[in-house]
Amino acid sequence: MTTPEQIIAKIETYDTIIIHRHVNPDPDAIGSQVGLAEVLRNSYPDKTIYQVGSDTGNLAWLANVQEIEPAAYQGALVIVTDTANSPRISGETFNLGAELIKIDHHPNDDPYGDLNWVLPDASSTSEIIIDIVNNSEGHLQFNQAAARVLYAGIVGDTGRFMFNSTSPHTMECAAQMMTFDIHHDKLNQKMNEITLEQAKLQGYLFDQLQVNDQQVAYLVVDRATQDRLHVEPQQVHSIVGTPGRLKGVLTWVIFVQQADDTYRVHFRSKGPIINELAKQHDGGGHPLASGAKAADQAEIDIIIAELSALAAQYTE
C-alpha cells in the first residue's frame, strides 16, 4: 500500500513535476492541485513545477493553469489530484511522464497510476494535501499562496462545513491555513458571490423545480433557458446545492444541457447513496454528491425514475 512517505520520496527524486486535476474544476480540484504546486515550489525552489489542464473558467480568480509542451513530460513525475477516474483527468498528456501518482478522496474505483494515496473519508483532497505536508517531517513547507487555495478547497468541498464529511480534523486543517493571513473572509465572500444572471437562475429553479412523492427534486436547465438567462453551462453549478435547502426534499438531480445537446447530471442527497446510480450513467463521485451524463430526454426520465426508486427504499 502506498504511503505519504513514498510520495515524498518520489517528489524528491524528480527535477520536473507536473500536476493535473479533473475537468470542469471545482475549488477542491484547484485547491489541491495548485496548493500542492505552491508547496513544492516553496519547498524545492530548484525544481520545475507545473500546474496544467483546461482553463479554470469562472474560478480563474482563485488560480489558473500553465501551458506546457509535451516534451516537458520526458523524465517528469506526474501527480493527479482530486480525480476519481482517468477519463476525467484534465489534459490528455497526463500519461507521458516517467511515473504517475494519484492523490484523491473519491472512492478508488479506478486505481490508476504507479502510486495511489486515496482516502475516501477525507472531506477533500485539499485536506489530504495538508496532511501530507504536516507529516513530511519538515521536507514540505506551506506558504501563503498554498494556504489560500487549500483553504478554498476545503470550504468548497464541505459546502462551507455543512456536509457530513466535515470532521473536527477538517476544522483543524482549515484553522491552520487561516494562520497564513489568507483573508479568509474575502475568500468566503468571493466563493459565495453570484452574478445577477445566476441570481435569476436561482429564481428559475424555485419556479420550475419539481418535487415528487418520493421527495426527489429535479430540474432541467436546457440551452434555451441558459441563453435567455445569459448563463454558461458551468455557471449553472451555482444552483446545484439550492434544492437541499428545501423542506421535504431528500435527494435531487439537476440536468444541464451542454453545447453538444447532451446533459451534465448533478446528483445530491441528504441520505440515499447516489454514487452507484451515477456510475450507471457514465459518472461517479461521493456517496451523497456525484455527477453523471445523460444523452437525451429519455435518459433523463430513466434517471429520475431510478432516483425515485432509490429514495423510496431509503430508511434513516
Q: Helices and strands: which structural class? A: alpha/beta
Overall strand count: 11
Major sheet summary line: 6 strands, mixed
* Count of helical stretches: 10
CATH architecture of the largest domain: Alpha-Beta Complex
The figure for the number of domains is: 2
The CATH H-level homologous superfamily of the largest domain: inorganic pyrophosphatase (n-terminal core)
CATH fold-level topology of the largest domain: inorganic pyrophosphatase (n-terminal core)
Could you describe the 3D structure shown?
The chain has 316 residues and is an alpha/beta fold. It folds into 2 domains: 4-191, inorganic pyrophosphatase (n-terminal core); 200-312, Roll (Diaminopimelate Epimerase, Chain A, domain 1). It is built from 10 helices and 11 strands. The strands form 2 sheets. A 6-stranded mixed β-sheet has the order 6-7-8-9-11-10. It has a 5-stranded parallel β-sheet with strand order 2-1-3-4-5, covered by helices on one side. Helix 2 packs parallel to helix 3 (125-134) and helix 4 (144-157) packs across helix 6. This is Bifunctional oligoribonuclease/PAP phosphatase NrnA.
